[in-house]
Amino acid sequence: MIPASFDYVVPRTLQEAVAELVQHGQEAKVLAGGHSLIPLMKLRLSTPSFLVDIGRIENLNYIREDDGHIVIGALTTHHDIELSELLKQKLPLLTSAASQIGDPQVRNRGTIGGASAHADPNGDFPACLLALDAEFTVVGPKGERSIAAKDFFVDTFTSSLEPNEILREIRIATPPPGSRGTYLKFSRRSQDWAIVAVAAQVRVTGHEVTQVAVGLTGMGSRPLRASGVEQALRGKAGHDDELRQAAERAAEGTDPPQDLNGSPDYRHHLARVLTRRALEQVTAHH
Amino acid sequence: MAVSQLIGASIKRREDPELVTGSGDFVDDRSQTALAYLYVVRSTQAHARIDAIETSRAKEASGVLAIWTGKDLMSEFQSPLPVTTSFVPEKKYPNHYPIASDRVRYVGEPVAVVVASSKAAAEDAAERLDIRYQPLPPVLDIEAALKKDAPVLHDDIGSNIAYDVKRTGGDIEAAFRDADVRIKQRIIQQRLIPVAVEGRGVVADYKKFAKTLTVTSSTQIPHFVKIWLGVILGIPESNVRVIAPDVGGGFGSKIRVYPEEILVALASRRLDRPVKWTEDRNENMKATHHGRSQIWDVEIAAKRDGRLLGVRATQYLDLGGYCSQFGTFQAIALLIAQGPYKLPAFDGRGVGVYTNRTPTDAYRGAGRPEATHLIERVMDLVAQEIGMDPVEVRRKNFIAPSEQPFTNLLGLTYDSGDYRITLDKVLELVDYPKFRKEQAEARKRGKYLGIGFCTYLEICGLGPSVATTAAAGIGFWGMSVVNLHFTGKATVIIGSSPHGQGHETTFAQIVANELGLPLEDIDVVHGDTAIGPMGMDTYGSRSASVDGTAVYLSSVKVREKARKIAAHLLEAAEADIVYEDGKAFVKGTPSKAVTIQEITGAAFQPHRLPPDMEGGMEATTFFNPPNFVWPFGAHVAVVEIDGETGATRVVRYVAVDDCGTRINPMVVDGQLHGGIAQGIGQALFEEALYDETGQLRTGTLVDYMIPTAPDLPSFETAATVTPSPTNPLGVKGIGEAGTIASSVAVINAIVDALSPFGVKDVDMPATPEKIWHLMNRNGGTKR
User: Fold this and answer.
1) What is the pLDDT of residue B782?
2) Do the chains contact at B710 and A190, CB–CB below 8 Å?
3) CB under 8 Å to A71, separation ≥6 — which residues?
4) Residue A189 and residue B768: Cβ atoms within 8 Å?
5) Which residue among A193, A260, A269 sits closest to B689, beta carbon to beta carbon?
6) Are the beta carbons of B526 and B496 closer than 8 angstroms?
């Protein structure tokens, strides 16, 4: 279908964009890459009367290291993340996830900020950012504030962004040496949303797993941390049987949906299998 | 000679009303009247009475030209939509009009049309319609439709059963009496959505004074659409022109006369301006017909040595809310379920039912994938039961070449084929013994490899006029005109209407081959009934063997005329003329040749022709084939299953097809690649699902999973060539073979892979979760 009619504005600065949001209130929606919002509008499932296209605001597309943090601008595309040398070195979890999102067209248009603010429980970045304890810097009428990932993703398609706030930047503490990460995604076709996916970030120091974080995609109405797995593995040597036992706890406390792609039972099972495989991958050769 | 009374009568000039009212169509009038856009408002209910449709608020919306409901339009229809009387002649079907007026029977059925100055305005106005339904209990699947107390869709039919027919041959009682093994199996042919890359679309332009209607439609069947537009709207067939321009795929989904073709034409006639409608993907998913949607109950009788004795099979076919034009074609499966095998007895029953879902009709293969799936599962079920290699079971049962032409149990006669040759070749290509070793090794490592065979036989080439009249109620044939212009360039008009098959290339090759014309001098024209008024269009892998033969025969006629003219020009006897590479010369003196271009030039200058010859270089052929054509082949799928997750990949796919003479092997490969992908789609990914209220749950391409390139292996194709004796080109058909063979090859491979778990069959689509359940249902061998 053709979207319902709407007005459209292209602000040049974040401040202008926020002012537009303030002025138009609930009627307004922020448009970034458009890969989630536009399909919804074409189905007339979403009928905002005002679109604030932030796509031409300068200096929102960057990946850099700054004072012990990797910082990523909200308009950075999946493609730029996939190919970033800095991220390949320091945050391979993100490059691994980016490379599995949609197809090249989607990755060229879609942005990490848009994907985060959209808060799709089957999206790939939210579980990664949750596992990485990312901080979301958001701009609103009263200035900037920072939201921790665990507080950012609230529910299906719901983040803790206020309607008049815009995500500006994502900050992740640079993982210390010896850290490794990977994203394992299970879907029926290569370009689909995940049925279940696992984001694993692990640091092995000497013969000890000193840091472990596991994020889950598709296991509830928002991305989840598999804290049982983390608890079970932290401080262990990372032997195969330890990984296996830890991974068995991957589905604890999750409440995955029953939908066309799978039953809760199957998703529980997938979470365990994928977690074990992800852990095996990031602890191999230690 | 009697002189007609009309000759000599002063009849009023029909040209005048248009001219005297200033409505003529002179050069300077050629600025197209602005298109109006039509939007079809569709039922949101699976089964309901329409209580009221309130249009006044929508009519006030900006840009709206007209809004009509079914009640407003019903008096305009002089006939319901067509339903072929054939394939299952003894069926009950309701009058189905292009738009519902008092009751809806599937989600997506048209209930109103909005015409506006833009597409957006039409869609905006449509949202302001207030439609009040009184819901009726929906019938959601075949089994529900058959229940005694099921709600009845069509009161005048009195039940949901459209037909219940037998198709039998041989002594089935004896077969089961003599059997060593008896196997029962239910096979589900899930409901599929054809998903052509281009959806449907119609532009209609009715001219008031001339009373002519021009309809441009994304259709496979412009000639049928022309006839039925005339019948339904009461316009003489000669005043209707239908154009199928570039058509972005069909797969059978554009094989019928659709409600929208009638509605858009009607809107143009009522508004006296051109009107356009194009469906979006959401409409395409629910309003364009679906395919398959069948349940098969099968009983097999066989000997322990692998010989098949008999098959009992009931095909339950879900027709959807109405009987579509070729909705019952799929029952042809019962006539050909025997496949390439010697089967002593077949006891077939076909039951067609109505459900509150989108109507079904032909989808690539149409009846033949279902028949092939049946008999090829039968082969593997027998093999598994008696512990014999599935290849051996097939060999034991193949019809021998010495038995050709072979008449099957239902009276159809196969034209040719040694079915062993494609199987031999495919076995060599896959290195079967090596695979079995790898399979055993992989199992030790928790990897489940499987190999699946399909040795199919297919009926193509509709068709012999007598046979198709008996089965289809109408005699089919092929048609061509080969017409050389003054300078020796050719226009070739064909009766088929391609939508991706490459006829412009392959049919030009046929003409070039016979006449020696350069390929670029041959223009193949199709899909415009003003240029080629008669044709039987494109479906069922018929075009090469039927219209292609007609093209060949017209080319031969033109060549023979060219030889006669050459003889006259060269002052030689016709018998001494040699025609080669576009030149004619007297035997032995090729240096004194006349070219086809020179000969054609002479053909348009009567003084240069033999005295008794008419001018022109044109030939028309209506070709009635003596039989169907029967391509065959052997396909092998190799799958790898993740023992933990059930994820299944087709890692190798090898196809050896015998479609007779290959006019263009690259085009043949293209047809195979697309077809195999679609068959794998059915095996692994695709299924149209409805919820408990009859809403389509898989209404987008996110939920309805067609396979994409990374989900498929690189296909390996090879050929054997057994020319068909049915036509002089020796061609058979290849448009559907890939689909017919591949879904069952993949399912057989999955069952083979899962044999350590005692699995005997897998429902399609074989999703990872289904396979995970199969591996774990008896405790499995969980790692």
Assistant:
1) 41
2) yes
3) A62, A63, A64, A65, A169, A170, A171, A172
4) no
5) A260
6) yes
* pLDDT per position as a tens digit, B20-59: 988 887 877 777 778 999 999 999 999 999 999 999 999 9
Summarize pLDDT for B304-342 with one digit per residue, the tens. 999 999 999 999 999 999 999 999 999 999 999 999 999
- What domains lie within chain B, and their CATH numbers? 3-22+476-623 (3.30.365.10), 31-136+200-247+254-287 (3.90.1170.50), 372-462+627-776 (3.30.365.10)
Q: How many helices (H) and strands (E) does chain B have?
A: 21, 26
Residue A215, burial from CB neighbour count under 10 angstroms (0-12, 13-18, 19+): buried
Q: Cα-atom radius of gyration of chain B, to the nearest Å?
A: 29
pLDDT surpassing 90 at residue B394: yes
C-beta atoms of A186 and B647 within 8 A: yes
Cβ burial of B638 (10 Å; 0-12, 13-18, 19+) is buried
DSSP readout, B43-70? -S-SSEEEEEEE-HHHHTSTTEEEEEEH
Q: Which of A191, A193, A263 sits opposite B708 (nearest CB)?
A: A191
Distance of CA A206 to the CA centre of its chain: 30
Predicted model pTM: 0.95
